[in-house]
Amino acid sequence: MTLLGTLRRYTIGSLVVVLGAFAAFSALSSAQTSDRTPDLPVDKCTVGAAVKLADGSADAWSRVNDLIASAQLDTHGVYQMHTLRADGADDVCLTCSAQPGAPRTDRHKIDATWHPSGAFLVMQGEMDSHPLTIAHANGLISELIANGLWSNLYATTPDGGSWHRLTDYSSKNADGALAPMFSPDGTRLMWSRLVEPASDAAPFARYRLMLADFVVDDTGTPGLANARDITPQGARFIEPHGFSADGRSVLFASDLGLESVWSMDIWTLNLDSGALVNLTHSPTYEEHATYSLTGDRIVYMSSAPYPGTFLQTDLMMMNLDGSDNRQITWFNRSGHPESVHGPVMPVWQSWNVDGSALAVTLQHGGLEYPRREAWVIHFAGPCGA
Predict the structure, then answer these.
(1) Rounded distance, CA 33 to CA 48, Å?
(2) Which residues in the chain come in under a pLDDT of 70?
């Protein structure tokens, strides 16, 4: 199969649609970016400062060792996993040199999550060989890898000295792992598994929501046990975002029950009863949610502030029942500490230990898509506590 044929077969998102829509929406997106927001009352969720740490992602912030996991592109266009402080200090690349059991140094490592103890970091690692290996450093191809295609899950220690592969998926078809998330007590790991490529019936491809026990044996070797499929009936695209504070419910984004994937909603699933709740239920696009430290509120990405635009979003906060929505970041509006030249999308987020700061992966839309930047947003008070 030709490279183009393979790309068409395995494309996860509607990347061709995305690129084609840039021209149609670029003028409107620019106009939205230049509009200054009226003065807002200052409270604990007012952004006081915003700092760009690196070109790359801000995947997860450990509340034990105070390190941010950040996937950064090397000089060859390959995502390498780093850890660093919120001020950019102590930047260490965990994957730039070969280690036994680790993904190859010339393969992407991205979308990491910290074990609550700080003892392990779990991430996606690109497979050694697959149909698009020759072009894997291309920006759009790397975005497919970031979305789980031909990726396995790996666990490593905080210094990157010990590695263990947790899944063994196939490179012969559309397969791979996306967005690992730990339960609050660290005994379970949730992720999405890609099972079918994109199609007319499933424009963002088909995924299954997976849950497994995270176990560590007497030698300190981590692994997964009792893996099970917990996907709600009818979901095509489904992406895990985390566990509730008591570990009884999980948070995810999905096109469940929707005609269009561009109306993605934020959901919760009770693991005991199977009860589902659609928290956003809107015609706009919502994704990338995270619980507050106390578990009583949820931050999520939404296109609601920018109707009629494309790949332009900001962060909202709501109560657990979906009420009391408010916008808490203004990346796409001028006159704020976090303002940048848009359109941009604050995707993955992670709170620091006291809820006063949020590590954010900022992804660019427009002609810069899919470029990522790692940011830290400092609030006037403990917004996430």
Answers:
(1) 20
(2) 1-40
